[in-house]
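Complex 584.
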Amino acid sequence: MKNNMRIKRGVAVSHGIAIAKAFLVDATEYTIPERQINSEDAAQEVGKLEKALHNSIEELKIIIKRLQKKSTKETVPIIDAHIKILQDTYLKSQIVEIIKKELFTAEYAVSKTLRKYIKALSSVDQNSFWGSRINDIYDIERRVIRNLLQEKIKDISEVKESVIIVCRDLNPTETALLDKNKVQGFITDKGGRTSHTAIIARAMGIPAVVALNDITLDVSSGDLIIIDGNTGMVIINPDKETIKKYSVISKNFSSYEKNLLNELKDLPCQTKDDHEITIYANIELPHEIPLITQYGGQGIGLYRTEWLYSEAGLLPSEKEHFNAYKKAVSILKNKKIIVRTLDIGGDKLEPGKENEKNPFLGCRAIRLSLQNLNMFRAQLRGILRASNYGDISIMFPMISAIDEFRQAKSILEQVKDDMRTKKIPFREDIKIGVMIEIPSSAIMADILMKEVDFCSIGTNDLIQYTLAVDRTNEKIAYLYQTSHPSVLRLIKYVIEQGRKHNKPIAMCGEMAGDWLYTVLLVGMGLRIFSTSPIVIPEIKKIITSITLDEAKKVSDNVFVLDSAMEIDKYLRNYTKNIAPQLFE
Ligand code: PEP
Ligand code: MG
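Predicted structure with magnesium ion bound:
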C-alpha cells in the first residue's frame, strides 16, 4: 500500500543523494506589533535595546570561538561582520531615534530600522551576491529581537541525529554551526545558485535543493525525506520501494564518485582519441581553492570576486585585492587563474539609494566599474600586482559592446602606465578576456575576437537575456531552457569565431558543469570547461569516454532538433549509455 508520498521539484544546487528525517528550522517569523510607549518609558526601552545588542554581540563572540575549532572557520568573517553591524553607532542611533522621537517599543524600532535595509536589498536579484545578503540582515534582526524578548536562541548545532535541514533559507550563523556529520542535506523554500545555502552545501559536499517555494509548509519535523541533488527532486515520506531504490542509488553514487576521483584525478583530460580538453574550476569563496587540486582541476576559469566587497566592507582596498589573488597563486602555484572583475549591481553599493526598476538590465558588473573608477582601478592594480607572482588573467563581466571593452581596457592601460612609472612590477603580457553572457556580444563575437585575448561563455546570464526569462523567477523557471536552440546557436557561433581567430573560448556558466551537455559541448568545439570543483570528475569521466567524432555526431543530431525538450531527451539517452550512474 502506498503511503502519503509526495514529490517536489526545485533547483539542484549541490549534487548527491541524501535520505534522512526532516529537521524543520524555525520557520516562524516574528511579527512585531506596532506598539507605542509613553515618553517617560523611552529611556527604559533604550536600556533594553542596549542590553539586547550587548547580549547579541556576546552570543556571536561565543559562536566565533566555537567556529574557530571547527572546519567551517572560513565563515568567521561573516559572523564578524554581524558583530560590526551590531556595534555600528549610526545603526543604533537610528533605532534610538525611533524609540525616543516616534515613541515605539525597542523591538518595533529594531524591526523598522532593519526592514528598511532589507527593503532596499529586496529589489536586487535574489540570486546575486547582495540579494543573498538579505538573509544576514534577517538573521541579525531575529537575534536582537529574540534577545529583546528574552527568548533562548534555538541552536541547530544541537541536532542529535542524522537529519535533513528544512527551512525557508539558511541563516549564515546557523549554517556555520551545523555539524557536518549529522546534517545530510538542505532543502529550502527560497534561495538560488549563489544563496548562502548553495555555497555552504557545495563547500560541505552535501546535497541541496533550493527554491522549493513552500516546502516548510509541506514538511513536518520527523518526516522522512529524500533529496536528489542531481535532479532537484525532493521526496517527502517515500514509500518502501522508493526508499530502497534511493538507498541503492545513494550507496552506488558515493562509491561511484569515490572511484571516479581515484581513477581520473591524476589522468590527463582527453577524449578517447587523445584530444585535450581543459577543466578549470569556478571559485566563489577562497576556501574552495584547495578543492581544485583535490578534484583534479587545472586552474581557476572564473574567480568571482564579489566576496571581497562584503568581507572588507563595501570597497576593498588595492592591498586587500592583492592579498586575495596572491593567496590564490600561493595555493595553485603555476596554474592559471582568471580573475573576473566585480559583478554586482549599481543599487547594491549604496543601500537606501533609489532602486533600479530592472536591476538585471541596470548598472551591473562592468557598467558599475566604469562608473566607479577609483573602485575599478583599485581592483585592477591589485590583480596586476598579484600577476607578478603567477599566471593571472583579467576577465571583464557583462560586456555588451566593443566600446565597453575598449573603455575597460584603456583604464587598465592607464593603471599599467602608472605602475610602470612607479616601478611596481606586474606581468606585462597579462591576458585580457571578456565574458560572453549578453546576446549582443555573442552575435558580435567576430568583432570582439579581434581585440580580446580570450572569452568565457557565461550561460547563466546568456540564457536569461536570450530567452527574456529572469533566472531567479520560479514562476517561469520552465522557460529557462539551457538547451533552447537559440542559446545553442549563439554558443556555437562564439566557439566558431574563437577558432577562426585562434582565441581560447571557455564556458564558465552552470551549463559547463551539467553533465547532460558535456558531449554536446565537446561536439560543438568547446575545449575549455570551468565548473564547480566537485563535479570535475563527472565531467572528466564523460570526456574520457568519447571520441571527437562521436561528440560531433551528437552535436549534428542536436542541431536538427527544434526544442529544448527533445534535445534534453536525446542527450539524456545518449549520455546514460556512457555513465548510467549519473542518471539513476
Ligand atoms: C554566468 O552568467 O554564466 C556566469 C558565470 O556569471 P554569474 O553567474 O556570476 O552571473
Ligand atoms: Mg553572469
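The mean pLDDT is 87.
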